Structure formats: structure tokens, C-alpha cells
């Protein structure tokens, strides 16, 4: 290190500063990507919860349609055959 000139030391310092700036920039990008990923996960959880609720509603709707269809068929059979 003693035989290093001032100019070489200055170049190394500049390179280190540039590397530090680059690392800070990349860390900021990683932090923003992490925040976006967390938001995406929250939205996916909301979609899954909504999907489960709509599945339950569809099951109930199918049961009601089946009961209604059975009632209509029963009325038709009762009217024509009895």
C-alpha cells in the first residue's frame, strides 16, 4: 500500500464511491420490489377469500335452482296426472 500513488488511491476511492451508489440504488429497487410483492400477496389473499365466498353462494344458488325445478316438475305432474 505504501508504494501506491495518490492518483491510484483517488481512483480507488472514486470506484468505491460509485460502487456504493450502485449498491444503494439496487437496495432501493429491492425494497420497492418487496413492497410491491407484499401488496400483490395481499390482493391475492383478497381474491382467494372472495372466490371462496362466491363458491359458497354458487352452491346455495344451485340448491335453490334444483328445489325450484323440482317444485315446477311437481306442479306439472300434479296438474296433468292427478
Report on this structure.
With 82 residues, the chain is mostly helical. Helix content is 93%, strand content 0%. The protein has one helix and no strands. The chain is rod-shaped.
Q: DSSP strand (E) fraction?
A: under 5%
Shape: rod-shaped
Rg over CA atoms, rounded to whole Å, is 35 Å
**Helical content, roughly?**
over 70%
Q: Topology as H/E string?
A: H
Largest sheet: none
Quaternary structure annotation: single chain
Give average pLDDT, whole number: 91
Uncertain segments: none
DSSP, total strands: 0
Distance between the termini: 110 Å
Secondary-structure content class:
mainly alpha
**Number of helical regions:** 1
What tags apply to this protein structure?
rod-shaped, mainly alpha, single chain
Amino acid at each position: 500500500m505504501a508504494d501506491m500513488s495518490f492518483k491510484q488511491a483517488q481512483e480507488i476511492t472514486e470506484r468505491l464511491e460509485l460502487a456504493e451508489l450502485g449498491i444503494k440504488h439496487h437496495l432501493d429497487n429491492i425494497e420497492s420490489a418487496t413492497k410491491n410483492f407484499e401488496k400483490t400477496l395481499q390482493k391475492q389473499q383478497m381474491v382467494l377469500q372472495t372466490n371462496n365466498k362466491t363458491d359458497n353462494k354458487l352452491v346455495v344458488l344451485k340448491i335453490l335452482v334444483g328445489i325450484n325445478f323440482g317444485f315446477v316438475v311437481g306442479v306439472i305432474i300434479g296438474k296433468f296426472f292427478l
